[in-house]
Structure formats: C-alpha cells, structure tokens
Specification:
about 0% strand, about 160 residues, elongated, mainly alpha, single chain
C-alpha cells in the first residue's frame, strides 16, 4: 500500500464513523432518550432544548464529514477502471438519499430537530411531517448504509 491508499483508507474510515454516529445517535434518541424525556414530564424545557442543540451539533458535524469524504470517495471510485453501470446506479441512489437527508436536516428542520415536526391538518402537511420526521430520517440513513454494503459487493464482483 502506498501513501495515497492509506489516506483513502483514513477517509473511508472517517466516512463510516460519521454515518454510524449519525444513525446510531438517531437510534439512541428514538429508543432511549425520547422515551426517557417523555417519562420525565417535569423536565425543564431548557434541558430538552439543550439536548436538541447538542444533537444538532453532532448531526451537523457528521453531515460536514460525510459531504467532504463522500465527494473524495466518489471521485476516487469513479476514476477506477473497475466501475460498472450497476455500481454507478447504486451510487447515484445513495447520493440522492443522502442529499435528501442533508436537505431535510439543514433546511426543513432548522428549528425542530431532533423533535418531530408538527403534523398539520391537511393530508399534505401530514405526509410532509412523516417524510421529514426523525424515524423517516433514521430509516433513510439505514438504507444509505445498506447501499454502501451493496456498493462494496458490486466492487468486489467487478474485481473478481
């Protein structure tokens, strides 16, 4: 392995850690923290708000790392001779889903993250709330991580 291979390995590791941190944090929030906050009804609003601010900081850092490392890794992979059409298709799907998640967190959930948005009265508002809710983002994140495994399998098949 040359120096560039070691650098790419470190970038892949950083990409994976950022993804797992975001998705793992979401799982922890949904399965542990939110139920605990709901049970502690006397919890001051400041505490709940500070939890949201800290979690948002974690997510913002993860997004920054994912964007930077994702661009580097995509360019690195797409310049190899072993790239196939299915690989490019899965990569595009992964990028589209990841950009959707980034968009929701950055522009649609600026004030409410990590709390779920209010569901309005209209069908459109309810659908929008479900598509941008914490659970929807978590499921999308798990799908994106799964697509990473598909990409690895496609790359291994093309090398064989």
């Amino acid at each position: 392995m040359n120096v560039l291979d070691w650098i790419l390995l470190a970038i892949r590791w950083g990409h994976a850690v950022a993804a797992v941190t975001w998705v793992g944090g979401g799982i922890f929030y949904l399965m542990v923290l939110r139920p605990a906050i709901q049970q502690a009804r006397g919890l001051p609003a400041e505490t709940s708000r500070s939890i949201g601010v800290e979690f948002r900081g974690l997510v913002s850092t993860a997004i920054s790392v994912l964007l930077l490392t994702g661009v580097i890794l995509s360019v690195s992979r797409l310049t190899e001779d072993t790239v196939t059409s299915p690989y490019v298709g899965v990569l595009v799907a992964k990028i589209v889903l990841a950009l959707y998640m980034f968009y929701v967190v950055r522009f649609m959930r600026q004030d409410s993250y990590p709390e779920d948005p209010e569901l309005g009265d209209s069908r459109w508002q309810r659908l929008r709330g479900r598509l941008t809710g914490t659970t929807a983002l978590l499921v999308t994140g798990i799908v994106v991580i799964g697509l990473s495994d598909v990409l690895d399998g496609l790359l291994e098949n093309s090398l064989a």
